[in-house]
Design a protein that fits this description.
Layout lengths: L15 E8 L2 E6 L7 E8 L2 E7 L4 E4 L6 E10 L2 E2 L6 E4 L7 E7 L2 E6 L7 E8 L6 E6 L3 E4 L7 E9 L5 E10 L6 E8 L4 E7 L6 E7 L4 E6 L3 E4 L7 E10 L2 E2 L6 E4 L9 E4 L4 E5 L8 E8 L4 E6 L3 E5 L5 E10 L2 E2 L6 E4 L9 E5 L4 E4 L8 E8 L2 E7 L3 E4 L7 E10 L3 E2 L5 E5 L6 E7 L5 E6 L6 E8 L2 E7 L3 E4 L7 E10 L2 E2 L6 E4 L8 E5 L5 E5 L7 E8 L2 E7 L3 E4 L7 E9 L5 E10 L6 E7 L4 E7 L7 E7 L2 E5 L7 E5 L6 E8 L12 E5 L15 H20 L1
Protein name: Fibronectin type-III domain-containing protein
InterPro entries: FN3_dom, FN3_sf, Ig-like_fold
Length: 731
């Protein structure tokens, strides 16, 4: 089974025609084709380093070699039968390595090409042209390791090629790269400042080859920048009151252009600080502030809370304004320059003192109290009312435009001031005061007395100055008054039998005092409107009268030279006894009130009736007549006789001075009652004298049949006998 190697079947050994290097890391080998060979094995040997490469046909290239190095090159042919022996070696040297380029654009019109030294190189060739193929080609040879191309177009992409050569002038590998020149400086710089937003918009003409633009804003204290791919950019936030130098530079992958000439930008001034507000005197506001950089002039705005706004334009640092009480003013100060208005600084508010009430009106003034009202005033949150009397102070605080000052002294002059108050400004101490005098003190009634003229004198005590006093007696029967500037006055015409409540009131221009404590006053009871005296019996009279107002009891007195008769009763009549007939009396009635007040009401003369006649005797005058005889009594000259019977009344009036009277034509057989009465001057006939009984059947002339009986007893006897026989007859 062992195969026998047939060397005669191996492919032929190829012969190298030439070996050369065009690239620093490879050698290209050319040879004649060997029949039957399917591939070839190229070998490059440098000392102990062997590099083999399998190729299909000629020419073939061995790669991975070192530049500028001499190699022994051999080749073998390969067929299915195997590989041939190595060909005779042939020397070949790799060309120089390409320089490693470092390119940059130090300016917008130049490109700097730099490289490191190349092994075995004695010179270098560098060329440059625009990458787009337009324009000329610059080529420079040098033994240095750097080269600068100038007068190039700014912002243009260039292609740079460089290679080294050896002592034989053989060029090595070339190195190619692209480099853009840096852009040119932007032109037509325009700066637009926005004072409200404190930002600046910077614009310029586009620059060839610029990828990006950078705007720089430099001040003494800050550095601001913005970058953009466009032809405008906004820088913010800028600082107020600052001068900026603004420049623009363009840049690309090669670098940046030179900055443009700086454009000066002055921003708006900062808002003025250290603002102070003073109101001196009231009604004048002074607004002051500190000076600011870059401020050409200032405007101060003052706006009141009702919407009204005023302003002041000045190059100084102070403005004066008129102000009103009770307003809140909003104050702001702006600085101006060519760039515009400064930013809004702090807005200050100043509240002026609240207005003072001007229409203080006392709606009630009493002895110890004063009620005052006023219209609400602007800016007042509270009202402080003070009433000052020497060293005494009475205060009241209220949010309402009214105040009641109490616990005041009567008849006292107070200095009353209403101060308006606000929490921000406090009290307005410039409010004017006014004087209000309290009502007078109440007088004190000391006594009430009566004089003989029915006048009631009222006396009081008071400490008021220049007061007028009014005394009022008030009762069910009306009101009575008297007035005086002194300490007493007299009440007249008070009705009798009345009870009054007496008070005194003091009055001044400030008002009326409270009434004094009332003092009761009772007038004497009223006398009776009429008095009547009636003789009841010869020794008894009845005195009657009408009831008078205020009288509770009455005392009736009957007075004569012979003595006095008295009666005390709560009725309106009284019986008085032990009256002597035919005597002149004086009748007096005294009315007495419940408290013991008396009124001597009436004095009336009264003559008691004449005495009843004595010794009345009856004498028969024929069958139908009778004579009545009596003895005249004291106090009367006229008499009247009356016979009362069942068949009539028979009256006889004797002539003046006579003491008998004849009655004729009287029916017989009847019993009569005979009464002889004195007749008063008024014609009134008294009815209380004793009566005599007379019978026509038993009456005889004289009394001879009954000598033991008196005339009067005889009449009584005959009357009793008559009544006896009359009774028997009825049975």
């Amino acid at each position: 089974n062992t195969k026998t190697v047939q060397w005669s079947n191996f492919p032929e050994i190829p012969t190298i025609d030439q070996a050369y290097s065009k690239i620093s890391n490879s050698i290209t080998v050319e040879w004649a084709t060997v029949p039957g060979a399917t591939s070839y094995l190229l070998t490059a040997k440098d000392g102990n380093t062997v590099i083999e490469t399998m190729v299909a046909n000629s020419p073939g290239t061995v790669t991975g070699l070192k530049a500028a190095t001499l190699y022994q090159i051999t080749i073998r042919s390969i067929s299915p039968a195997g590989r041939s022996q190595a060909s005779p070696p042939k020397q070949a040297k790799t060309v120089l390595a390409a320089p490693i380029l470092q390119v940059s654009s130090p300016s917008s019109d130049s490109i700097l090409v730099q490289w490191e030294a190349v092994y075995m190189a004695i010179g270098f060739s560098v060329s440059i042209m625009q990458a787009n193929g337009l324009g000329r080609i610059w080529k420079e040879n040098t033994t240095n390791t750097s080269l600068t191309f100038t007068s190039l177009a700014a912002g243009t992409l260039y292609t740079i090629k460089a290679y080294a050569w050896n002592a034989n002038g053989t060029p090595g590998d070339d190195s190619t790269c692209n480099q853009r020149t840096s852009p040119g400086t932007p032109a037509n710089i325009q700066v637009s400042f926005d004072s409200g937003a404190l930002k600046a918009s910077v614009s310029w003409a586009p620059t060839e080859g610029a990828f990006n633009y950078t705007v720089m804003a430099l001040s003494d204290s800050s550095r601001l920048s913005c970058s953009t791919a466009f032809s405008s950019c906004t820088i913010y936030p800028l600082q107020c009151g600052t001068k900026y130098l603004i420049s623009v530079s363009a840049s690309n992958d090669a670098g940046s252009s030179r900055s443009t000439s700086a454009v000066t930008l002055k921003t708006v001034a900062c808002a003025p600080g250290k603002v102070t507000i003073q109101e001196d005197p009231p009604g004048h506001l002074s607004v002051a502030w500190s000076n600011v950089d870059l401020g050409d002039y200032y405007v101060a705005f003052v706006k009141s809370d009702d919407g009204l706004e005023v302003h002041c334009n000045t190059s100084l640092t102070q403005c004066n304004f008129l102000s009103e009480c009770g307003f809140t003013y909003f104050i702001s100060v702006f600085a101006y320059n060519k760039a515009g208005q400064s930013p809004l600084g702090d807005v200050f508010n100043y509240t002026t003192a609240p207005c003072c009430p001007s229409d203080i009106n006392p709606v009630l003034v009493s002895s110890d109290r004063v009620e005052i009202v006023w219209s609400p005033v602007r800016g007042a949150e509270l009202y402080e009312t003070k009433a000052v009397d020497g060293f005494n102070v009475v205060e009241c605080n209220d949010t309402a435009p009214a105040c009641t000052l109490s616990a005041l002294e009567c008849d006292t002059k107070y200095n009353i001031t209403v101060y308006s108050f606000s929490e921000v400004r406090g009290s307005n101490t410039s409010c004017t005061s006014q004087f209000i005098t309290t009502a007078p003190c109440s007088p004190e009634i000391k006594n009430i007395s009566k004089d003989d003229f029915s006048m009631v004198h009222v006396r009081w005590q008071s400490t008021n100055d220049e007061a007028t006093y009014t005394v009022t007696a008030r009762g069910e029967k009306g009101v009575h008054q008297c007035s005086s500037a002194g300490e007493s006055c007299a009440l007249g015409g008070l009705p009798c039998g009345s009870v009054f409540s007496v008070t005194a009131v003091a009055e001044t221009p400030a008002g009326r005092s409270l009434p004094s404590f009332s003092v009761p006053l009772e007038t004497a009871p009223c006398c009776s409107a009429s008095l009547m005296v009636t003789q009841v019996t010869q020794s008894v009279i009845n005195v009657s009268w009408t009831v008078g107002s205020g009288a509770l009891t009455y005392v009736t007195v009957l007075q004569s030279q012979m003595g006095q008769s008295k009666c005390h009763t709560h009725q309106n009549h009284c019986l008085l006894g032990c009256i002597a007939c035919g005597i002149n009396y004086t009748v007096a009635v005294k009315a007495v009130s419940a408290t013991g007040l008396t009124a001597d009401c009436a004095y009336q003369s009264y003559s008691s009736s004449a005495c009843c006649p004595l010794g009345v005797k009856l004498y028969r005058l024929g069958p139908n007549g009778i004579r009545i005889h009596w003895q005249a009594s004291r106090g009367s000259a006229n008499y009247s006789t009356d016979l009362y019977g069942s068949k009539g009344i028979f009256t006889c009036a004797p002539s003046a001075g006579l003491s008998f009277c004849d009655v004729t034509e009287i029916p017989c057989g009847d019993v009569y009652t005979v009464m002889v009465s004195p007749v008063a001057e008024t014609g009134l006939k008294l009815t209380f004298c004793p009566k005599k009984i007379y019978s026509g059947q038993f009456l005889f002339r004289g009394c001879s049949h009954y000598p033991w009986l008196s005339c009067s007893d005889s009449l009584l006897f005959h009357y009793l006998a008559f009544q006896f026989f009359k009774t028997k007859r009825n049975f």
